[in-house]
Structures are given as C-alpha cells and as structure tokens.
Amino acid sequence: MEHSDQPYKYAVHHSEEEGKKTRRMIWNMFWVLLVITTVEVGLGIMWKGWGIDFHYVKMTFIVMTIAKAYFIVAYYMHLKHERTALQNTIIIPYVMLVLYLMYMVFTEGTFTDYIEHLF
Amino acid sequence: MSHTEAVDSKEAWGGGTSPFNAGYGKLMMWFFLMSDALSFTGFLAAYGFYRHDYSAIWPSAENVFTHFPFVHGHQPLLYVALMTFILIMSSVTMVLAVEAGHRMDKKKVMLWMFWTIVGGLIFVGSQAWEWYHFIHGTELGAFELGIGTFTLPDGTIEQTQGIIGRWADESKQVLLLPWREVAGDITAPYMQLTGDALKDAMANGQAIHGANLTHNEYGHPLFADFFFFITGFHGTHVFSGVVLNFIIFVNVIMGTYQKRGHYEMVEKVGLYWHFVDLVWVFVFTFFYLI
C-alpha cells in the first residue's frame, strides 16, 4: 500500500545468481539447526547414563539454545545484514531488560541457594 | 542481498528517507517482535523462579510427556523433538518463500508458503494432542494428600497438604512421596507410605488424574499452570501465524504483490513466523530439556 506517489524504494530484490547463494545459505543453516536440535535431544535422553553432572548438561543446553537463536535471528530473520542502527534498536533494549529479568531470577528465587550448593 | 538504495549515514537522520533503510511495516514488525520477545522472556523467567522455589516436587518433563502417536511405552522427548523439527522445517520453507519473493517468482512463493502453512497446522495439531494427553493423564493417576503430618526417617515432621504422591504399582498399596533428599537414603529413591500410615495420609486427600489449573497428577500444580500458559500463548501465536500466512498466501495467488512490484508483505509475515520458531527454541529448552 503506497501513501506517496514515489515508487516504493525499500523492498529487497535480488538476481537469480544471488538467489542461488541465498538458498545455499538457507539450507546450510537448516543443517546447522537440525544438528544442534538432534544433539540436544540425544543429550536429553542419554546424559543420565554417562554419569555427568546435570549442571554441565544444563549449561550445554543453554549455550546451544542461544546459538540456535542467533542463527535464526541473524540469518533467517536477516538481522545480520540490516543496518547497524536497526540491529542496535532491536538488540540493546531487549538485552538490557533480559539482564534485569535474569537478575531477578538469580537473586530473588532460591536460585541463590542452588548456586551456593555448586561450590 | 542488494538493497535498491544505500543511505548515507551523515544524511540519514535529516528526514525524507528511512535511516534504517527498511519499510515502515517491516520496522514496526521488528518493534512488535522485540516487545513480544520480552513477554515470553518474562514468562520463562517466572517459570524458572518457581521451578527453583519448588525444585523438590517439580515434575521432570521427561516423565510427563512420554507419549508418541501409535507407539506404546515410554518415549520421552521424541514427540516434542518431532514437533521442533516440524517447526524448524516450516521456518526453512518460509525463508525460501521470502527468497523467491525477492526474485519475483510467484510460483515458488506460492509453493513455499503452502508448505509453511501445512507445517504450522501440523504443529498446532501436535500441540493439541499433547495438551489432550496432559489433561487426560495416566490411568493409574496420583494421590494428593490433605491436611495432616507425617514423620520423616530423620525425625522431622512434615506437613502433607498438597503433596502429590505416586502409586508404586496398580495395587495402590504403596504411595511414593517425593522426599528422597531429606531422607538422605539413595537406595530408597522415594519415601514410602503403606498400611495405617497410608490410610491416615489419605484420610482427607483426593485421587487426581491428569492436570488442570489447580491439580496436577505429575507434580506441583504450578508446572501445569505454566505449561498451559506458556505453550498456550505460543500456540496462539502459531495459530495466528497460520491465519496471517493464509491471508498472504491468498494474496500471492491473486497476484496482489506481483502487481505491487515487491513481496515485502511475505517478508513481514516471514519475520513473524521465524519469531514463533525462535520462541519455541527457548520453550523447548526450558520446559522440556532442563
């Protein structure tokens, strides 16, 4: 829907050749996401048989989840190739408020007891 | 990806152009998704808070969601892994539709949008199936104790109200209470109630099957509350995503965007769809894995 008589100039177009590159990137990312998810599920089913502490498993899950989130946002949602101003506008307020929420969980929940038991 | 116009950063904020080099609708979609992400983060933070508050009686998801369609026995995590795979797959088809849109390839946009909608519908259906099993519960059920006390092996006295015990087997002669840490005996994984002690404990309690907002067969009722709320809120997003995708799909068929000269609308709805996938990545980890 155009509200000016100027032609719409922000839409993205690309050529057949660039499309090929993009599709290769999309499928590569698909394999990355699939492998991470498979490892997560495998770890979730089998970690008890390996005699490792759950805290390490938990941290592995969280790191893998954040990695997956990064790949989805950066490549599928294309944020990596947006202008820096747009990236900062989305990422900075989110991270700031999430750090605050994490602070609440870590200090106000009995999570503090849990952390004391780690050492 | 090539943008049609590069914005000079010195003049970007001078007016008359978009400093972000993105259309109004796309920008607003990003802002909406950022705020929506904060809502979901808030829910998951609340979940983590209570989970650690009640860690002794919090159910483990792998003991709750053990069903797989047409397969008998315990299949922990497999079904939710399949759901996750379906949602990731539909994210791939969505981004392929966006890519086809950039080449003005109407047929490919139609094809990939179609598969995205199919994936979304399968996911919503799977969620309904899982809800059904969670609400329905197991045949054996569990027993929620009423007001009373009992003595632990180390001599401390515990209140019983609201404690959910599981039956050892179908004869319902032995009730297992979740007190392995206090009892300190690793060989006996749960505190066992039998005979008269069991009769006393059962005096004003009730048998429960499945889960709802006030009772939960598998453990603390808050687990059920958070499960219904978080996966319900996510499921609502998936459902509205399917509806939006369908509307855009119809527009693509009618050639609306071909006439307009760009498929940015597919891109916008694509952002929303990827976000739904993104939220599921976190729900999967914090609800099912941890």
Describe the overall structure.
The complex is a heterodimer of chains A (119) and B (290). Chain A has 119 residues and is mostly helical. Chain A has helices at 16-46, 54-76, 84-108, 111-118. The longest helix of chain A has 31 residues, at 16-46. In chain A, 73% of the residues lie in helices and 0% in strands. The relative contact order of chain A is 0.06. Chain B has 290 residues and is an alpha+beta fold. Chain B has nine helices and seven strands, in the order ααααβββββαβαβααα. Chain B has helices at 24-53, 61-64, 78-102, 106-136, 180-183, 195-202, 221-254, 256-260, 264-289; strands spanning 142-144, 149-151, 157-159, 164-167, 175-177, 191-193, 206-208. In chain B, strand 4 (164-167) and strand 5 form a beta hairpin. In chain B, helix 1 runs antiparallel to helix 7 (221-254), helix 3 runs antiparallel to helix 4 (106-136) and helix 7 (221-254) runs antiparallel to helix 9 (264-289). In chain B, 39% of the residues are buried.
**Which of globular, elongated, flat, extended, rod-shaped describes the shape of chain A?**
flat
The number of strands of chain B is 7
Q: Helix/strand-derived class of chain B?
A: alpha+beta
Share of helix of chain A, binned:
over 70%
* N→C terminal distance of chain B: 38 Å
> Largest chain interface and its two residue counts?
A-B, 57 and 67 residues
By secondary-structure content and strand pairing, the structural class of chain A works out as mainly alpha
Q: What is the N-to-C order of secondary-structure elements of chain B (H for helix, E for strand)?
A: HHHHEEEEEHEHEHHH
Number of helical elements of chain A: 4
Assign a percent range to the helix content of chain B. Answer: 55-70%
Mean pLDDT across residues of chain B: 86
Q: Which value, in Å, is the CA radius of gyration of chain A? A: 21 Å
Low-confidence stretches of chain B: none
